[in-house]
Amino acid sequence: MDLEDNKSRPLDSNLRDDSIKSWKRKRSGGYAMENPAADDRLEVVLALLDASRSRHGRARLAAEGILPAVLRCLSSSPALLLLPRLCITVNLCCERPNQDAFLEAGGLDRIASVLLSGHQISAEILQAVLQVLGNVASAGEAHKAAVWARFFPIWFREIAAMRNPAVCNSLCKVLNTCCSATGGRRRLGELCEEGRGLPILLDIVNTMSPSCHKEICLYFLLGKACIKDIYFNLVFQRLSSVNTLDGSFGANFTYKLFTKEQVFLLRLLSYHLIAWPDVLDIISSYFALGVLQLLKEAYSVVDASSQSISAGLTDDLAINVLWCSFYILRDICSWKDHSSSASEDPADSLLSAGLLQLLLRYLRELEPPNIVKNHAMQTSTDSKVCPYKGFRRDVVSVLCNFLHGRKQVQDEIRKQDGIPLLLKQCVVDDCDQSLRQWGSLSIRYLLEGNLENQYKVAELEQKEPVITPEIARMGLRVEIDQESQCPKMVKAYQEQEDDPCQYYANGQLTYVTRLDS
């Protein structure tokens, strides 16, 4: 299946089978007639539906001209027959000849007539209508443009306003298909335009959010709008319950309150970056800078004097925004577009916007890790506790990915006297067992291919500021490997060459796995 799920397909089996079982219980028996598409007997309609399920059956029905006849019957169909006839249309529109025939027969107007027919429009009928549109739109640009012109924005807005998760999922498939390929970006701009398409997008997010209902097309649709294009700030703002922004939609906005819908959006975009990085040929600098601003604002809102009970999502929305922002920035910093060397690296925009200085400041403001704090002679009373468990790890993990393959970041850390600070993160923290791994990997990336940084670490070792309490407690000390000239940790009380506990040597990372004996 196409990653972006834009291919036309037969009717969803769950919807089809559940509904047809219900219909078959109501009526049975029957006989054939010369024009079966116009026959209002349920058994005849179900026979056509059965035939439309297979490729061979669809080809036979297409040759008999069944699709135009079915379309003509839609607006006058009794309530019992409307859904099965829509299902026939869904299945027939899987094939390109029928997709063309659908437009030629005025199928879009026929489908619109269903919404005006006076029947009670159930969620199942709306799903079938939307799947017809999705299948037709997948045929090409002319079909996408025709669907968009007929149903955007009024009908799509009415459908989204129903706030039904299953219906919104089907709507996402149509919108995602229409906003793809040639002409897709223009339609995406219309979808994100205030007063026109934006209410559709917001209704979808608000519908999916309470139950954290997420479908693949929702990821791709919001990924197009927020990650690849320029609409993240606008969408995020409009999900706020109050007007908390300055109205500029740029990266210089300010937030004081956050909503569950905003956290839902951030989680969704974060997962998109992790699960489908290969489909992202670009990450917009608008998105990167918008998330950076969120990080600043959430950090300023969080009460730094209290610590969350656990890592991850909490009841504190500002902490959740802070946590999600770190994860997104970490993945942005690790993103590479291998298809084009000319692609702009969003990390460059983050560096220019002061991400590095911000991360180093966060580390400097924090009280030391517990293993250091417990053995330090004194601790500054101005130090802050971590807003949540794992906060220090998240800061270091963003720094780690930011360092990887970026000499400018390596050099900036040295110039800002960040090397000693980063070395202090290579500890076993009882609040987060993965801190040491992220810290050690950060040191590897800091020194990799950078002689000046390697010499700086060697100089620090000679002056012995690197022998911090946490290193001493582990029974380790730092020395320079005579062959590789890289720093390594060795046991202070046992220096046999065959048993070093080193964290970086010969360009390879080895974690300290034993602290005793």
From TrEMBL:
The keyword Phosphoprotein does not apply. Residues 391-484 form the Ataxin-10 domain. GO terms for cellular component: cytosol. InterPro entries: ARM-like, ARM-type_fold, Ataxin-10/CTR86_families, Ataxin-10_domain. Gene3D superfamilies: Leucine-rich Repeat Variant. Pfam families: Atx10homo_assoc. Keywords: Cell cycle, Cell division. The keyword Transcription regulation does not apply. GO terms for biological process: cell division. This is Spinocerebellar ataxia type 10 protein domain.
